[in-house]
Amino acid sequence: MKIYDLIIIGAGPAGLSAGIYAGRAMLDTLIIEKDLEGGQILQTSEIENYPGSLDIESGPTLIDRMIEQVKKFGVDKVRDTVVDVALDGEIKAVKCDKETYHAKTIVIAGGASAVPIGVEGEEKFRGRGLSYCATCDGPFFRGLNVYVVGGGDSAIQEALYLTKFAKKVTVIHRRQELRAAKSIQEKAFRNEKIDFMLDTVIKEIHGSDVIEGMTLENVKDGKITEIKADPNDGTFGVFGFVGYKPKSDLYSGKLHMENGYIITDENMRTNIPGVFAAGDIRKKSLRQVVTAVADGAIAAVQAEKYIEALKS
Question: What are the residue boundaries of the FAD/NAD(P)-binding domain, all occurrences included (predicted)?
């Protein structure tokens, strides 16, 4: 039975960063990923806020370079789907569809995914006017109209943030009342750049290469409203904030979690020795590429230290 020093579950920015640091530290490392490497960032056409990216950087180009670094340091990779984990004891087991893999340490970097807003045209315009991250994409909508879908804390906070860039921000919420904290609501109501369309849902987003219009429905009276882009702009932005779901179901009952997010300390350590979590899957205040790669680096360094301690 082969026993790796480290198994990394997930090959997004956090997992790849952990792989780079682990490989460079000469740890015998395996990355397990069921889909394409990169995770959510593959849907990002432009990255402006990653340090050092002076030219136009895209999610795929950044991930391609990370993948090459992982190869350079001799990290093994396998495409497989994790179905169960055994995390207790000195040797951890990761059961997948094809095989069961074993290691002294585990870094869980499965990420999280935005809950779809559930409208026709959503997949087509993802990354082409439809976003789920104001911090990531807000600056691309400078001077344009923007629509925010949702009524919770995140939606209203992101709407407030988007007023820094947008010409006008309109919050679309399916209920008569927002769900955000009253203090956040009051800030939004006072902001002259924010409008509200309550009791309303988006039925369809349409356009050619970018969003050019959308169809709205009032859930109380069934009235249909068509929204078209300002002819001078040619497009507008739609931001969905109906929730995020961490990919953590496998670890329920095994690790300490809060609202599905794995709880770690500042060194990415979970409540089980030798098990670390990194990136969007863990409880944290900011989910960005830069924080994901930092998490991955820390987790790999801590895994190395854990293995060294086992030898003493």
Answer: 4-296
Residue at 75: amino acid letter? V
SS3 assignment, position 66: helix
Phi, psi of 308, deg, nearest 5: -60, -40
- Burial degree of 299 (CB within 10 A; 0-12, 13-18, 19+): buried
Distance between CA 144 and CA 222 in Å, rounded?
A: 28
3-114+244-311 domain in CATH 3.50.50.60?
yes
Amino acid at 240: G
For residues 79 and 103, give the distance between their C-alpha atoms in angstroms, rounded to a whole number: 17
Q: Which residues are catalytic?
A: 133, 136-137
Going by the DSSP 8-state scheme, the letter that residue 293 receives in this structure is H
Q: Which residues pair with 255 in a beta bridge?
A: 252
The SS3 of residue 303 is helix
> Are 222 and 195 in contact, with CB atoms under 8 Å apart?
no
For CA atoms 271, 272, 274, 275, the dihedral sign is negative
Nearest 5°: the CA angle 142, 62, 279 is 85
Domain boundaries, the chain: 3-114+244-311, 122-240
> 240, 132 in Cβ contact below 8 A?
yes
Assess contact for 57 and 10: CB atoms under 8 A: no
Domains 3-114+244-311 and 122-240 share a fold: yes
pLDDT tens, residue by residue, 8-49 = 999 999 999 999 999 999 999 999 999 888 877 776 666 777
| pLDDT tens track for 225-283 | 999 999 999 999 999 988 888 999 999 999 999 999 999 999 999 999 999 999 999 99
Q: What is the C-alpha radius of gyration for the chain, rounded to an integer number of angstroms?
A: 21
pTM over 0.85: no
146: tokens are: 């923007």
Architecture of domain 122-240: 3-Layer(bba) Sandwich (3.50)
